[in-house]
Amino acid sequence: MSLTITDECINCDVCEPECPNQAISMGETIYVIAPDRCTECVGHFDEPQCVQVCPVSCIPVDPANIESRDSLWAKFNRLQAQAQQAQAQHAQAQAAAAARVEPALVGSPAEGPK
Ligand code: SF4
Ligand code: SF4
């Protein structure tokens, strides 16, 4: 299951950086949890980190998004695969950018003493 934030949220900003899945963001008026990114912290921690830190206890289970533990693990694995793919693409882009810069450096040697 994923969790949800109720309208008792006081926008204290504490939970957002604690989420290992970047599932929490500021909504129109209060913070919100993206159900497709919340694993209830399965794969990262024993307890939901947002629930641990919320000072007003306004993060219950979302009755509209009840999931089995297997489903949460599958979501965790999907998010990990996405993150690895993004890292690989970033590394490829950096390597391509470096390859474009190097010939320019080779083509303009510094002048030595005469
Ligand atoms: S339970 Fe965990 S994964 Fe879900 S929103 Fe809270 S901190 Fe993020
Ligand atoms: S920790 Fe609780 S009160 Fe603070 S922003 Fe998150 S949901 Fe809202």
From TrEMBL:
Write out the GO MF terms: 4 iron, 4 sulfur cluster binding; metal ion binding
Extract one GO cellular component term from the record. cytoplasm
Whether Repeat counts among this entry's keywords is yes
Write down what this protein is called: YfhL family 4Fe-4S dicluster ferredoxin
Signal peptide per UniProt: none
Cite the InterPro entries for this sequence: 4Fe4S_Fe-S-bd, 4Fe4S_Fe_S_CS, PSI_iron-sulfur_center, YfhL-like
Q: Which residues form a coiled coil?
A: none
Keywords noted in UniProt: 4Fe-4S, Electron transport, Iron, Iron-sulfur, Metal-binding, Repeat, Transport
Provide the 4Fe-4S ferredoxin-type domain boundaries.
1-29, 31-64
